[in-house]
Amino acid sequence: MKPGEARRLARKLPEILPLLRPEAQRFLASKHFLTRRRCSGHRTVAVVNHYCVFYNEGCVLHKVGAAEGDKFRYKPVLCSLFPILLCTEGDWYVRQWGLDWEGWDLFCLHPEASNVPARESLKDEIAFANRLVREQPEWVRQRRP
Ligand code: SF4
Asked: From the CA of 125, how far away is ligand 1's center (Å)?
C-alpha cells in the first residue's frame, strides 16, 4: 500500500473498525494494518486468520468507498486494479488461468467463467487504470519492468 493511501485509510479507520471481523478488530487494537513485508516496495496489508484484515464477507474498504460514491477510495491500488496488471512488456492485461505466471486458481480468473467481455465487466477497473496513467504516471512508470 502506498504511503498516501495508508494515511487516508488511517484517518478513516475509526469508522471502519466496527465493520471488521471481531478477530480483525482485536488485531488492530494493538497492531498496524500494514505489515513490514513489502511487495513492489510498498508495505502489505495484514492478514488475520487467513484473510485480509479488511475482509468481512467482501472487502469492507470497497463497501465504505462505494457508500461514498467511489469504491476505489480506500482500497490499496493493486486491489482496485484487480484483476488488471501490467505485464512484463509494460502493457495492461487481465490476469487469468494459464496466462504467464498466474499462480491463483480463483474462480473469477477462469477465462470461461463469464461470457461478458472483460472490456464491459471490468470497465470500472479499466477506467481506474486510465486514471492512474493520467494522474499518477510516475507510479505507473515504476510498476513497469
Ligand atoms: S480487496 Fe484488498 S483490501 Fe479489500 S479485502 Fe481484498 S485484499 Fe483486503
From this structure: 15
For residue 73 and ligand 1, the question of a CB distance below 6 A is answered with no
Q: How far apart are CA 100 and CA 40, in angstroms?
A: 18
The model's pLDDT over 60-76, given as tens digits with 9 standing for 90+, comes to 999 999 999 999 999 99
- The number of C-alpha atoms within 13 Å of 128 and in the hemisphere containing its C-beta is 19
CB 45 within 8 A of CB 35: yes
Q: What are the pLDDT digits (tens) for 96-128?
A: 998 877 888 888 889 888 899 989 999 999 999
Q: How far is the CA of 59 from the centre of ligand 1 (A)?
A: 5
Q: How many CB atoms lie within 10 A of CB 95?
A: 19
For ligand 1, pick from 59, 63, 78, 125 the residue to mutate: most ligand atoms within 8 Å of CB. 59
Q: Give the C-alpha separation, 93 to 17, whole Å.
A: 34
Ligand 1 closest atom vs CA 53: 8
pTM higher than 0.85 for the full model?
Answer: yes
Whether the bond between 83 and the residue before it is cis, its omega within 30 degrees of 0, is yes
